[in-house]
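Appendix B: complex inputs.
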Amino acid sequence: MDTTTNYLGLELRNPVIVGSCGLTSTVEGLLQAEEYGAGAVIVKSVFEEQIIYDIKRNTSFMAPTDNYGVSYEYIAQHVAEDSLEKHFSVIREAKKKMHIPIVGSINCYSFENWITYAKRFEEAGCDAMELNMAILPYETMMGCDDVDRLFSDIITSIKKFVSIPISVKVSSNFTNMAQFMQQLSWTSIGGITLFNKPLNIDIDIDNVKTVMAPKLSNPDDIFNTLRWVALLSKKVRCPLSASTGVFTADDVVKMLLAGASTVQVVSCLYKNGLSYLKELTSGLSDWMSKHGYNSVNEFRGMLAVGPSEESSLFFRSQFMKHFAEIQ
Ligand SMILES: Cc1cc2nc3c(=O)[nH]c(=O)nc-3n(C[C@H](O)[C@H](O)[C@H](O)COP(=O)(O)O)c2cc1C
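Resulting structure:
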């Protein structure tokens, strides 16, 4: 049974990747992910603010300033507690012991000099980088062109500093999703991760204050990812990694049928432990043997929208059919 898959120019033993999160922030966590069968791991992200703070701290003529307003104190404390050096030493240590690809991650949202630091991830031993581009159109002054330019500036610049493949992790909040993803895939990136998970905010009505919504996904969250992977996988020029809402081996199969090259899992591992990876990978093999497939490539993308198919017609007809049936 051949479950190997190619992603970002790397050969993975199977398509199940442990997505960036706290479970991948330590050498032990990374080693366990490999032991339990992950195809690759994405290390916990470094925030661009951490990098910028670090650059300023180490540049005598540019002492860290209060650029980030109220968040400055938090960033300063976070950097002090969780230094970048510690982060790179985790990657270096893990790299010596591991055989599966290790992907570094930066959570970024602006075109700043943090980009120059990307080289250090490569030097530490990362096989690829994922940029979690947490760029959301929060500001009323920000138009589509501004967002497009930001993506393009960051991608073009970072490629000047690293030679390892770069993937981009994006949110599902785009006005022109299909067009934007296609154009993104025409840049020099090696892959797109659909989707990152913007922080959700809730309101505590007893204490009348804003609070964080639950961090973990729910199984129903898969449908948005599944829709866009199926719609885009044959229309983009780079491989897609499906993230958000993948909880079971069946979900892994669905994403592959929709055309994903890899699948990232996080919440299901927080709920079941890293050993749950074994269930995901063996479930994939079981499904393949039950359906007579010898390799992932034989069925990947079987249920994706074709390269020149009109997606809107399909969805419109299904929508009408579905709601006409409900009385
Ligand atoms: C506790 C926790 C920490 C996370 N940390 C990161 C991070 O550092 N970088 C990142 O890109 N995504 C991070 N994520 C988001 C996950 O990588 C993933 O995109 C999201 O959880 C959706 O996948 P899931 O449905 O499998 O959980 C984190 C998620 C959780 C639950």
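Residues 19-22, 44-45, 105, 107, 132, 169, 196-197, 215-217, 221, 243-246, 265-267, 270 surround flavin mononucleotide (CB under 6 Å).
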